[in-house]
């Protein structure tokens, strides 16, 4: 058994470690997605390599050849990897969409810079006067804290007045319609 006899496994391990290192070490979010794709591809290659048997054929029966004479490759690994590829593409697409939104919001795709901007925003929110901070919390612009919520005082209640009786609604026949202003649109001025 030589080293090249298990070449697929060596390539899978190399791709897996390269992808893992890229996800961990890089701060650019697009490069992280590329590393994640490399890692997923390595897993696909590993499973396909494990499912392949040398000298085996696809699992179909040939007329005149007994079942026990052929060695068949299990198709389950190929089917699972086909599904995993679709999931991988969807994951990458969602990740790229999130990176685009982060780029629009922060102006960068570098993880360190976005974290620094978030920390600066939190420090600025903590430095706000309490009245502005509480107003923003009530409007839903800031998350609620454990502090009790300040509610404005209720206006003084006035005694209820008796409502005047309403006049009865005019009776309409089946053919009468309420007239309204003409609508604007196709063919109308």
TrEMBL record:
The keyword Transport does not apply. Residues 124-189 are annotated as: Disordered. Its main location: membrane. InterPro entries: CPA3_antiporter_subunitC (IPR050601), NUOK/Mnh_C1-like (IPR039428). It comes from the Bacteria. It is a multi-pass membrane protein. It is found in: Cell membrane. The keyword Iron does not apply. The chain crosses the membrane at residues 6-24, 33-50, 76-100. Residues 174-189 have a biased composition (Basic residues). It holds the Pfam family Oxidored_q2. GO terms for cellular component: plasma membrane. Keywords: Cell membrane, Membrane, Transmembrane, Transmembrane helix. NCBIfam families: PRK07375.2-3 (NF005624). Belongs to the CPA3 antiporters (TC 2.A.63) subunit C family. This is Na+/H+ antiporter subunit C.
